[in-house]
Amino acid sequence: VASSATSAIPEAPSGLGVRDGRLKPPARTPNSVSSQADLWPDAAQRDYARIEPLPLAGDAKASIARIAAVVEDLPGAEVVERRDDYLYARFTTAMLRFVDDVEFWVDPVAGVVQVRSASRVGRKDFGVNRARIEQIRQRLAAAG
Q1: Which residues make Cβ contacts (< 8 Å) with residue 82, sequence separation at least 6?
Q2: CA 81 from centroid of its chain's CA atoms
Q3: Which has the higher per-residue pLDDT, 12 or 7?
Q4: Cβ atoms of residues 128 and 116 within 8 Å
Q5: Are 118 and 130 in contact (CB under 8 A)?
Q6: What are the φ/ψ torsions at residue 17 (nearest 5 degrees)?
Q7: Is 36 exposed, middle or buried (0-12, 13-18, 19+ CB in 10 A)?
């Protein structure tokens, strides 16, 4: 039996992960960012969601390890899945327990780390997902 604190958090959305070289498309509402937004020309929030991918730092495994170290140091972060070329983390806000799902995938064709960050609930994210990815980008750059 789930506790009330656990049951209040919505389940992870379906479709996370990499399929045919793509992360899940941007959300239909302005509450997600994706470095692959342009791969989804019919996405209603493509322009809002568009964000630059992260640069590679060494090979896939080294890049994911660096990202994981930064992510694990951020408030409310929990790494859910980690592979040599993919990282999935969940961020939970302290007070209202809002949950965002964040993915990083080393794209061997483009030579970058593709990112997607999306809120589980609500129509707007008030820029939180974009700010988080940019904070991760800054911390990676500062770490060299």
Answers
A1: 64, 68, 88
A2: 12
A3: 12
A4: no
A5: no
A6: 105, -175
A7: buried
Q: Is the pLDDT of residue 1 over 80?
A: no
The answer to pTM > 0.70 is: yes
Angle at 132 between CA 21 and CA 6, to 5 degrees: 90
Q: How far apart are the C-alpha atoms of 1 and 96, rounded to whole Å?
A: 22
- Is the confidence at residue 6, as pLDDT, over 70? no
Say if residue 8's pLDDT is above 70.
Answer: no
Measuring CA to CA, which residue among 76, 79, 57 is closest to residue 139? 57
pLDDT digits (tens, 9 = 90+) for 76-105: 999 999 999 999 999 998 777 889 999 999
- Does 11 score more than 90 pLDDT? no
Closest to 32 (Cα-Cα) out of 98, 126, 109? 126
Q: Which is nearest to 36 in space by CA: 100, 114, 133?
A: 114
Interatomic CA distance for residues 3 and 8, integer angstroms = 9
